[in-house]
C-alpha cells in the first residue's frame, strides 16, 4: 500500500497546489482571505485609579466601536455580527454590550454576542468572526474585547466550586490564583527573579517609546518611565516570602477596550476598505491548570505547523505578558529571538484588561509590522485554567 | 459526441493513431491509478459507435501511451512499476518488448516524430530516457533530478527534446551537444518567471514555483512550447528568448491542468484537460497579429500577457480529465478526451468554440 499512498499524495499535491505553503504562500492574496481593515483600541488605564476607573466596560466598548465606525467609515448596517470578549462582566456582559453596539450607531440588524475564554477572549472573538466569515455565515463582522477590571474584578467573578469539583484534583486546581501558580511554575521551571525583572523592565522601556496611536483621548497611564531591572529588584514578592513575582513583573490590572473590523478581501475591495492585514489561522491547546503559563509554548507550534511556517518566518511575536516568568519561559522554550517579542512593550507595562488583550494585540501587531515594513506576526497568550491560544496574522 | 466506457478503469491518456483516423489508444488504470492493474485499449471508431478492437492488461497502472511512428500496429505504454512496454495489436496478450529501467512511475512516453527509430520516456525518478525499439537497454539517460511528468521530442528536429518537471522548470536537451557534465542540457527555463514588465501593464510580483504537469511543442512555430500544471495557468515560451519569460499567459482553469496539446491544423490553437473536469480550447493570440516576441515596451504587441483567450470549453466529463488529443485527419477540430469518469469522449471542438 506504500506505493498507493505515495501516488495519492502526488495527486493531492496537484490539487492543493503542491509545495506551496510556508511563508510565500501565506503572503499570496486571495479574494477569500479574511482581512482586517481597521483595528484599534482605547487607552488602557490602571485599574482602581486610572482614567477609566469610573467608566463601565460597555461604555469603553461603545467608545471603541464608535471610533471604529468613524475611522473605517464602514456602513454600520453592513456589519452583521459583533463578538465581544469579556471575562469579568456578570452574564458575560451580553445585555450591556448589545446595548452599547446600538448606542454606538449600529442598526438593530447588527447582532452582538459576548464570549469568555478567559485571557484569550479578545482573540477568540476575532477568530469566531473570521471563521463565521470564512464559512459564509456573515460577510462583515467585528471582533472586540471590553473589560473594566476597576468595576468587576473580584471574588464574585468565579462561582463557588461544588463538592464534586473540589473532590477532583485537576478540577480543583482550576481555581488556584494565577499569581500563586505562576510563582510555583517559576520555581519549578527555574526562571530566576533577576531574569524576570530584566524582562519586565524592558517591557516598560519599550512601551515608553510607544508610537502606537490610541483613539479615545487619553494615554496609557500604566506605563512608567525610568523603570530598570535594578529598580524592580527592590519590590517585595507578592505571593510567597521567597518568591520572585511582584507588582513590577506581572501584568497590571487595567481597563480598556479594543475592536477589529474583519471581512473577506473581495468584500473589502468592493467597499473600498483599506486592507491592513489578514487573519491566517489560529490554534487553541489545553495544558495542565497549574502550568497555565506554558500555554503559548503549547499553542504556537501548533499554529506554525498548520500554516507550514518555521519560527524564523515570523517577524513579530505578540505574546501576552501575564507574568514575566511565564512569558520568558515560553520565549526560551520555543527558542525565539527575544528581540522580536512584544517590541512595543506588553501587559507588564501598559496593562492586561483580561477580555481585551487578544483584540488589542491585533492592533498593536499590525501597526508595528506595517511601521517597520515587516509581514508575518503571531499573537498568543496563556489562558487561566490551563490553555494557550495563538494566531498568525499577515500585515499588508 | 461519441462515447466509450472503460468500465472499471480510470483513463489516464488518449492518443489518436498517426496512421488511421478511426483508431484511438487509451491508457487506463484500475482504482484511479493508485493500486492495481492497468489496461491499454485500442478503440475503433465505427458506424456503430466506438468499439474496443483490442486491449492489453498489465500488472501495474498505466499512465501514458504513444503510438509508434514507424509501425502502424505498435504502441508504447508507461507503467506505474517503472516499465516501458511495446505492444503489437496483431499479437495476443503480451508485449513484444518490455524495458525495466526507471526506478519509479513512468508518466510519459513519446515517439520521435522525425527520426522514427527512437522514443523517450520520463519518470517520477527524475530522469528522461531515450530508447530504440531494437535495443534491449536505454540509449541515453538524461537526469532532471525532479519528478518529470512530461517529456517530448521536438516535431521539427530529431535530436531536440524537452521536458517539464515538478521543480517548475522547462528543460531543453539537444542530443547533438557533447555529453559533458550538463548531459546534453541546453536550456532550463523557470516556468514561474513573471512576464517581462512592459509599459501600460502593472509589473508582476513574484510568482511561486509550481509543479509543471504537461507541455507540448507547437506544430508550426518550431521554437514555441506551451506548459501547464499545478498553478492552473497555461503559458507559452519561445526558446529563442529563454530569459524573456512567458509570451502568453492563459489563466482560467480552476484546478491543475493535466494535459495540453497544440492543434495539428492551426498554429495558435491549444486544447487542455484539467482536474476541474473541463477541456478547454484556447488561442494564444498569435494569429491575431504579429507572431513572435517583439521589442520591449511595444504596446501594440497582441501577446503581452496573453492576447490569447479561452475560446470554448467542454464540460461533459464528470471527473478529472487526464488526457486529450487531436485527430490529425479529416475536418479540423475532432478530438478525444478521457478521464477518471471511466469514459472516452470523441467530439468536435468547433461545436464549442466561440
From TrEMBL, chain A:
Residues 275-392 form the Thiolase C-terminal domain. The active site is at 119 (acyl-thioester intermediate), 352 (proton acceptor), 382 (proton acceptor). Residues 1-24 are annotated as: Disordered. InterPro entries: Thiolase, Thiolase-like, Thiolase-like_sf_Thiolase, Thiolase_AS, Thiolase_C, Thiolase_CS, Thiolase_N. Pfam families: Thiolase_C, Thiolase_N. It comes from the Eukaryota. GO terms for molecular function: acetyl-CoA C-acyltransferase activity. One of its GO terms (biological process) is fatty acid beta-oxidation. Belongs to the thiolase-like superfamily. Thiolase family. This is acetyl-CoA C-acyltransferase. Keywords: Acyltransferase, Fatty acid metabolism, Lipid metabolism, Peroxisome, Transferase, Transit peptide. Residues 7-16 have a biased composition (Polar residues). Pathway: Lipid metabolism; fatty acid metabolism. Residues 34-266 form the Thiolase N-terminal domain. CDD domains: thiolase. Gene3D superfamilies: 3.40.47.10. It is found in: Peroxisome. NCBIfam families: AcCoA-C-Actrans. It catalyses: an acyl-CoA + acetyl-CoA = a 3-oxoacyl-CoA + CoA. One of its GO terms (cellular component) is peroxisome. Its main location: other. It is an enzyme of class 2 (transferase). The keyword Glycoprotein does not apply. Its EC number is 2.3.1.16. Transmembrane segments: none annotated. Its cofactor is K(+).
From TrEMBL, chain B:
GO terms for cellular component: cytosol; peroxisomal matrix. InterPro entries: PEX7 (IPR044536), WD40/YVTN_repeat-like_dom_sf (IPR015943), WD40_repeat_dom_sf (IPR036322), WD40_rpt (IPR001680). Keywords: Cytoplasm, Peroxisome, Protein transport, Transport, WD repeat. WD repeats lie at residues 99-141, 250-282. One of its GO terms (molecular function) is peroxisome matrix targeting signal-2 binding. GO terms for biological process: protein import into peroxisome matrix. It is found in: Cytoplasm, Cytosol; Peroxisome matrix. Coiled coil: none annotated. Belongs to the WD repeat peroxin-7 family. This is Peroxin-7. It comes from Lentithecium fluviatile CBS 122367. The lineage of its organism: Eukaryota, Fungi, Dikarya, Ascomycota, Pezizomycotina.
Amino acid at each position: 500500500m506504500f506505493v498507493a499512498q505515495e501516488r495519492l499524495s502526488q495527486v493531492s499535491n496537484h490539487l492543493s497546489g503542491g509545495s506551496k505553503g510556508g511563508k510565500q504562500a501565506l503572503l499570496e492574496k486571495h479574494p477569500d482571505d479574511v482581512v482586517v481593515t481597521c483595528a484599534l483600541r482605547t487607552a488602557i488605564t490602571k485599574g482602581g485609579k486610572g482614567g477609566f476607573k469610573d467608566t463601565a466596560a460597555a461604555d469603553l466598548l461603545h467608545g471603541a466601536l464608535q471610533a471604529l465606525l468613524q475611522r473605517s467609515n464602514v456602513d454600520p448596517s453592513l456589519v452583521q455580527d459583533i463578538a465581544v470578549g469579556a471575562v469579568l462582566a456578570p452574564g458575560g456582559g451580553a445585555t450591556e454590550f448589545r446595548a452599547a453596539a446600538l448606542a454606538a450607531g449600529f442598526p438593530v440588524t447588527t447582532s452582538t454576542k459576548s464570549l469568555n475564554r478567559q485571557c484569550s477572549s479578545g482573540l477568540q472573538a476575532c477568530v469566531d468572526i473570521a471563521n463565521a466569515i470564512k464559512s459564509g455565515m456573515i460577510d462583515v463582522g467585528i471582533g472586540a474585547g471590553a473589560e473594566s477590571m476597576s468595576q468587576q474584578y473580584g471574588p464574585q467573578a468565579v462561582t463557588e466550586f461544588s463538592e464534586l469539583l473540589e473532590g477532583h484534583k485537576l478540577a480543583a486546581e482550576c481555581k488556584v490564583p494565577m499569581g500563586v501558580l505562576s510563582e510555583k511554575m517559576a520555581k519549578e521551571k527555574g526562571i530566576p527573579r533577576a531574569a524576570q525583572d530584566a524582562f519586565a523592565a524592558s517591557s516598560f522601556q519599550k512601551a515608553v517609546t510607544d508610537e502606537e496611536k490610541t483613539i479615545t483621548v487619553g494615554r496609557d497611564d500604566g506605563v512608567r518611565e525610568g523603570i530598570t531591572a535594578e529598580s524592580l529588584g527592590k519590590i517585595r514578592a507578592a505571593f510567597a516570602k521567597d518568591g520572585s513575582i511582584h507588582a513590577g513583573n506581572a501584568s497590571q490590572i487595567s481597563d480598556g477596550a479594543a475592536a477589529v473590523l474583519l471581512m473577506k478581501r473581495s468584500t473589502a475591495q468592493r467597499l473600498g476598505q483599506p486592507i491592513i492585514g489578514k487573519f491566517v489561522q489560529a490554534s487553541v491547546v489545553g495544558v495542565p491548570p497549574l502550568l497555565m503559563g506554558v500555554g503559548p509554548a503549547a499553542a504556537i507550534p501548533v499554529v506554525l505547523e498548520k500554516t507550514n511556517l518555521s519560527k524564523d518566518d515570523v517577524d513579530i511575536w505578540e505574546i501576552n505578558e501575564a507574568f514575566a516568568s511565564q512569558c520568558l519561559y515560553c520565549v526560551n522554550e520555543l527558542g525565539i529571538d527575544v528581540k522580536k517579542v512584544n517590541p512595543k512593550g506588553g501587559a507588564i507595562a501598559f496593562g492586561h484588561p483580561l477580555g481585551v488583550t487578544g483584540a488589542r494585540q491585533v492592533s498593536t501587531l499590525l501597526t508595528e509590522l506595517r511601521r517597520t515594513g515587516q509581514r508575518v506576526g503571531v499573537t498568543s497568550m496563556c489562558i487561566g485554567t490551563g490553555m494557550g491560544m495563538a494566531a498568525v496574522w499577515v500585515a499588508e | 459526441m461519441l462515447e466509450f466506457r472503460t468500465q472499471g478503469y480510470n483513463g489516464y491518456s488518449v492518443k489518436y493513431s498517426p496512421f488511421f483516423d478511426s483508431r484511438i489508444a487509451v491508457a487506463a488504470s484500475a482504482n484511479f491509478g493508485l493500486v492495481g492493474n492497468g489496461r491499454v485499449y485500442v478503440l475503433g471508431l465505427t458506424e456503430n459507435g466506438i468499439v474496443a478492437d483490442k486491449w492489453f492488461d498489465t500488472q501495474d497502472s498505466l499512465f501514458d501511451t504513444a503510438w509508434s511512428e514507424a509501425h502502424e500496429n505498435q504502441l508504447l505504454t508507461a507503467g506505474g512499476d517503472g516499465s516501458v512496454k511495446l505492444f503489437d495489436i496483431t499479437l495476443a496478450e503480451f508485449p513484444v518488448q518490455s524495458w525495466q529501467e526507471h526506478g519509479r512511475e513512468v508518466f510519459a512516453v513519446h515517439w520521435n516524430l522525425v527520426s522514427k527509430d527512437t522514443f523517450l520516456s520520463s519518470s517520477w525518478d527524475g530522469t528522461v530516457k531515450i530508447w530504440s525499439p531494437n535495443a534491449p537497454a536505454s540509449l541515453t539517460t538524461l537526469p532532471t533530478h525532479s519528478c518529470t511528468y512530461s517529456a517530448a521530442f521536438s516535431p521539427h528536429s530529431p535530436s531536440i527534446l524537452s521536458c517539464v518537471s515538478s521543480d517548475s522548470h522547462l528543460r531543453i536537451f539537444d542530443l547533438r551537444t557533447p555529453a559533458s557534465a550538463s548531459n546534453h542540457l541546453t536550456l532550463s527555463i523557470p516556468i514561474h518567471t513573471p512576464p517581462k514588465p512592459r509599459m501600460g501593464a502593472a509589473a508582476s510580483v513574484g510568482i511561486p514555483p509550481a509543479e509543471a504537469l504537461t507541455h507540448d511543442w507547437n506544430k508550426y512555430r518550431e521554437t514555441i512550447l506551451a506548459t501547464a500544471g499545478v498553478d492552473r495557468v497555461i503559458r507559452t515560451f519561445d526558446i529563442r528568448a529563454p530569459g524573456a519569460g512567458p509570451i502568453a499567459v492563459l489563466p482560467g482553469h480552476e484546478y491543475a491542468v493535466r494535459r495540453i496539446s497544440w492543434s495539428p491544423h492551426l498554429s495558435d490553437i491549444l486544447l487542455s484537460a484539467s482536474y476541474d473536469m473541463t477541456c478547454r480550447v484556447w488561442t494564444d493570440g498569435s494569429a491575431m497579429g504579429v507572431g513572435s516576441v517583439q521589442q520591449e515596451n511595444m504596446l501594440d504587441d497582441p501577446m503581452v500577457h496573453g492576447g490569447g483567450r479561452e475560446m470554448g470549453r467542454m464540460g461533459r466529463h464528470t471527473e478529472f480529465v487526464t488526457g486529450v488529443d487531436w485527430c490529425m485527419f479529416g475536418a479540423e477540430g475532432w478530438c478525444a478526451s478521457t478521464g477518471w469518469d471511466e469514459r472516452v469522449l470523441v467530439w468536435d471542438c468547433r461545436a464549442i468554440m466561440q
